[in-house]
Amino acid sequence: MRSLTPRQFEQFIADVWQECQGWQTEVMxxxxxxxxxxxxxxxxxxPKTAVQCKRYAEGNKITSRDVQQYSALRQQWxxxxxxxxxxxxxxxxxxxxxxxxxDVKCLDGGDLxxxxxxxxxxxxxxxxxxxxxSNW
Length: 136
Hints:
By secondary structure, the protein is an alpha/beta fold. It is about 40% helix and about 20% strand. It is globular, with a radius of gyration of 14 Å. The mean pLDDT is about 90.
């Protein structure tokens, strides 16, 4: 997953949620997106979730300051109630503690590996890693 570009990583996360979990997802346009990468809505039509995607190297952890910033996404978007931060890396212990208090869901690199295995999404990952070929 770290071999994907940041944009491909955002699209990959949106596709896994949509294709494997039945969510309606929208990858936000490049540029000034107020920190929002993906908006997702569960299959039951429940509240929308703002998803912040961080394709980081292993040692580059999400900090409590990052979590605090991302938790504000629910105030910036009128119809968003949940916030999820997804990273190929990990979270500091302070970030995890703050996320729990602020009701921000955290998915680290290990969680992503389990998610790909659980939903058999290896083919989606390989498609992105191959540069999204049209003849796939």
